[in-house]
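Risk register update: the risk of archive-format incompatibility is retired. Evidence:
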Amino acid sequence: MGLYIILMGVQGSGKGTQAGYITQNYGGIPQISTGDLFRAMKTRTDDLAKQIQQLMAEGKLIDDDTTNKVVEDRLQQPDAANGAIFDGFPRTPYQAQWLENYLAKKGEKIAAVVLMEINLYDAFRRAFGRVTSPSGQGYNIYTDAENLDIKWIEHPEKLFPPRLEATVKATGEKLVRRPDDAHADAIIKRIDIFKKTTQPLIDYFSGKGLVKTVNADQTVEAVTADIKKILDAAK
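Archived output:
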């Protein structure tokens, strides 16, 4: 049996970090994010990719059936033969039912739905405060302030919000920020979308006894330990 996991959590809950741990320690199973898959379609020329490209160019939402096709295409790749970590999928009960049926045809099933819970204010601080070094090391201007030199640069005429400049004190490395993390309204909208779309899925999977809740407002190590217990029991 493979290990198929759904990882749920609002922006800033630490899903990316924990998905990396799972990949490294559970047979290299890949993290599958529909957002990443849709973006990857821009470089492909097959019929499915052209369909996605047209929908995105027209500013339309990707419908459930098309999303399911994209996920099926990804699951057929060799690295997903022994499992996968689903991040941002499924987004609807319809997609959830499709995934269950698809896995059942392969003699597989969803092992666990890991819900990473965190106070939404803390989630906002995590997302808005994230900065990264050129080597990929992540920091946060709020929780790692003692290790960073942080400046907010005002616009000369104060026409725009201040711009963040941050460097690592020990090395002088300049840190960069994801553009969407610098946009407070974008973060709030992502949180609102998560609240709206996730509850029906929590209800759906709770009815099947699959939802396992983890307190994401702990140290990374503590969250990892809780997730390990869940996955080891699921295996």
